[in-house]
Amino acid sequence: MQQGTLMRKVKSKSWKKQRYFKLQDDCMTIWYQSKRTGKIESAFSISDVETVREGHQSEVLQSLAEEFPPERCFTIVFYGRRGNLDLIASSAEEAQCWVQGLRQLIEPKSFPLTPALVSCTWIRDWFQKADKNKDGRMNFKEVQRLLKMMNVDMNEDHALRLFQAADKSESGTLEGEEFVLFYKALTQREEVLSLFQDFSEDGKKLTLLELVDFLRQEQLEDEGTEELAMELIDKYEPSETARARHALSADGFLMYLCSPEGSIFNPRHRALWQDMSQPLCHYFISSSHNTYLIEDQIRGQSSIEGYIRALKRGCRCLEVDCWDGPNGEPMVYHGHTFTSKIPFREVVSTLGKASWENSSSPPPRMGASPCSSHPQRWAQSTATLDIAALPGRGVPTSPSPTLQELKHKILLKGKKIGRLEDMLDGPGDEAPDVSDDDNGAEAEEERRRVKVVLGMVHPSRGTKHSPALQKDKESLAQALSDCVVYCKSVSFRGFQEARSHSRPSEISSLSEAKARKLMRDAGNEFVRHNTWQLTRIYPSGMRTDSSNYSPQEMWNVGCQIVALNFQTAGTEMDLCDGLFSQNGRCGYVIKPPFMRDKETLFNPSDPGSREGPGPVTLTIQVISGQQLPKVANSKDGAVIDPLVRVEIHGVPADQARQETKYIENNGFNPRWDETLQFQLHVPELALVRFVVEDYDKTSRNDFVGQFTLAFANIKPGYRHIHLLSKDGTSIPPSSLFVHIRITE
């Protein structure tokens, strides 16, 4: 990668400043300085970077598309809520140099990072933050301050002994590599060493047979165990001599336990592993609400970034609300509010680029609300989308196609028109069913959306058009209607009515309140309905702050499209990410067999109605934590008092939570050694959420980290849980060490 590259930093169409960007010698830090003043303006760590996007993949760069070619443009995306960095290089070659170089540093697939290397880069990152005078050395007082920054509250005498042992030069200071030695002594894992010695006859190594015993007895690996043991030794043993002798040292054992193979998440379930030949209604589908919004529902910003983030997160059902804009340009925003607007063509362009980045993923679905804009604008904007439509004016040849059959297609959810005059002049017949306790504004918004879907009618019913324009609109309304094949929107008028008159290719939208009422009154009928037809759930109109409802209760009755506000972090999005983190993150998870049977007796309020094996017992021994992060905005020198809470989210009978005691002043290597136990009546629907909090006896505990996964993806045995932030991003090297047992 080039050093000191001059590039344009872009914030808006009119704000383009030239800055020098430089990768420091540590290959972990990038700083940039003003070309005019020479002053260093900012710096960021490679560990802060989530991904790099090439071309015009931001609103700002799209607005400059005519001025700068995509080959010179790229966007650096950071973890969390930090704003993206849009850059324009002086040449395509220079842009590629930075893009490929950054990807080499941040992507594990192209730049393999062992647990040891992750740890070392993290240490050096902290070292540079504390090395104020940049002389590459730290005295004992500086080390003590750094330990506080790293969430370590250690006895001074013990810290001094470790410091002196690492000071090989006897200079009274630690240089970079000496600090790494100090850190390794600090982080020695007694609980892992004890486990290692339980299976090692000489206490120094695990022979191949000893490792096989450990894998079978503790990790419950029962297939190809010897082959697996050989693979682990070859992959994680740092000593060439030990590898040659087919042995695993204590360091290699720790590296294995910290690896994907030692994770609580079954690595086989990370890839696409489920049956993808079922009809759409047999899957839970990752779905977003008002995808274009990245803030609140009233005054928030609309941005294509909302679509990019949702698709990157595995979302497969997106919402696009279109309204008339200037000069006949369709605009996307939240109608009747003060949210900002984005051109419809930019949304379509983004969907065309981002939808197929994971080629193994089945199709995304798009709910669109066309307005009364000029028909040619619509035709031009959507020409690049591969919409799933069949011959015969949109009549499906199969009532319920499989995901595999619809691969690489986009499905439009909307209203189908019979007689055109019914669409243009008659009353709408597919407004969502709205219960008495629904918010009026949200109900009206949903009616508006559905009423104008594919109808080309502005919400103002009295609008008059010239005969020529009206003919254009009628023609396009029919053409768009023909694109709606498998997701025809219909009003929900009860389960009996649906059985008698509805089709598998139709879909109903229900508010969260209406869905809850149906659960209470007719839980089994709701489950049966969802075995053959799609149901979409949307948030209450009272959630103007973009808060979320619990998706779990909707999944419990088999609702497929449970729309959430992806921009709002919290338990609800943790559950969504936890469910859809499996199966290649394709956004589709197959429902349990008893939720795909039209004659099922299952009712989530009566777990005994589930067909299949009896309840299972989940036993979790929470052993220790490693390098837990400090609480955001905490005071200098503050050290957390961590506790672990385990939550079960599932059917009502399985909902439970238990927590450990808190450990005072130790966020670095706390030790709990506590056992928690849960009985699961319907494990197929259960999600397990691990939460670490900073205990506070006078106020609410502070969030530290979490990890959520479906029960079906848990690997038993001694496992590490790699924690995620509030935004769902990784926070290496923070983890929990647990022992898992599952019994019937």
TrEMBL record:
The gene is Plcd4. It is found in: Cytoplasm; Endoplasmic reticulum; Membrane; Nucleus. Residues 118-153, 154-189 form the EF-hand domain. Its cofactor is Ca(2+). Residues 480-596 form the PI-PLC Y-box domain. It is an enzyme of class 3 (hydrolase). It catalyses: a 1,2-diacyl-sn-glycero-3-phospho-(1D-myo-inositol) + H2O = 1D-myo-inositol 1-phosphate + a 1,2-diacyl-sn-glycerol + H(+); a 1,2-diacyl-sn-glycero-3-phospho-(1D-myo-inositol-4,5-bisphosphate) + H2O = 1D-myo-inositol 1,4,5-trisphosphate + a 1,2-diacyl-sn-glycerol + H(+). Residues 596-725 form the C2 domain. This is Phosphoinositide phospholipase C. Its EC number is 3.1.4.11. GO terms for biological process: intracellular signal transduction; lipid catabolic process. It holds the Pfam family EF-hand_like. It comes from the Eukaryota. Keywords: Calcium, Cytoplasm, Endoplasmic reticulum, Hydrolase, Lipid degradation, Lipid metabolism, Membrane, Metal-binding, Nucleus, Repeat, Transducer. InterPro entries: C2_dom, C2_domain_sf, EF-hand-dom_pair, EF_Hand_1_Ca_BS, EF_hand_dom, PH-like_dom_sf, PH_domain, PI-PLC_fam. The keyword Calcium applies. Residues 1-107 form the PH domain.
